[in-house]
Write a structure and sequence with these properties.
By secondary structure, this protein is α/β, with parallel strands linked by helices. It folds into two domains: about 120 residues, Rossmann fold; about 70 residues, Orthogonal Bundle (Helicase, Ruva Protein, domain 3). About 45% of the residues lie in helices and about 10% in strands. Strands 2-3-4-1-5 form a five-stranded parallel sheet, sandwiched between helices. It is elongated and about 60 Å long. It starts with about 25 loop residues before the first helix and ends in a 5-residue tail after the last helix.
């Protein structure tokens, strides 16, 4: 597993360094190369919700001074500035947005652009016009591999240690069995446990977690 960054906060700007890579090392390496202008052409990545598609696109744009757009923001045209152009949620493109993206593919070489796209399905499964699906299918493609429960547990325990917290293993096991297991939700829960532990001068254990659940904590 990639070494964790010490300063992981919910309000931290997305970077390639504070993404929990898990089994996505090859994808991260490709994005780093693309952000530095050393990539191998256009990229398309897909994955289930909460796997970090938007994080990766925003982080790549931040590293490479690119432009990030969500598909819902696209009308008839796209920026032509020579740079990295990231389009998120391509499965939600409107008809005019799909035309704009197809034209961007055609003009990318002349404009000096590299396209970085993300969606929820592999290219052939996208509900888009055939010629655009074909163009997306010609991109270097990566399926984002979700973190395993073992990796999530290790990350949560490591982050607690890095904050100087002692968190019982029973708490982590409970969260894995009964809570939302995406990292943003787990970080939100860890923040709530951190605050409650400090305010109540209590250890982070199962009784504390159950008290917080009874008080309305949503995990």
């Amino acid at each position: 597993m990639k070494q964790l960054v010490l300063d992981i906060r919910l309000d931290a700007p997305p970077t390639l360094e504070n993404y929990f890579a898990g089994d996505n090392a090859a994808l991260i390496a490709a994005l780093q190369a693309t952000a530095q202008g050393d990539g191998m052409g256009h990229l398309y990545l897909w994955g289930a919700p909460a796997t970090g598609r938007s994080h990766l696109l925003r982080a790549s744009c931040g590293a490479g001074q690119g432009t990030y757009l969500n598909a819902r923001e696209i009308a008839d045209t796209l920026p032509t500035t020579p740079a990295l152009l990231a389009i998120d949620d391509v499965h939600q493109l409107s008809e005019s947005g799909a035309i704009a993206l197809f034209n961007a593919f055609n003009r990318a070489r002349a404009n000096g652009q590299t396209l970085l796209l993300a969606g929820d399905q592999p290219p052939l499964a996208l509900s888009l016009r055939e010629d655009l699906r074909t163009r997306i299918g010609q991109c270097l493609g990566f399926e984002i591999q979700p973190l395993t429960d073992a990796a999530r547990s290790a990350i949560l325990s490591t982050l607690a240690i890095q904050r100087g917290l002692r968190i019982d293993g029973d708490v982590v096991t409970y969260l894995m069995r009964h809570g939302r297991r995406d990292m943003p939700s787990l970080l939100t829960t860890l923040d709530a446990l951190d605050r409650a532990s400090f305010e109540r001068k209590r250890a982070i254990n199962l009784p504390l977690l159950r008290e917080m659940l009874q008080s309305g904590l949503d995990i």
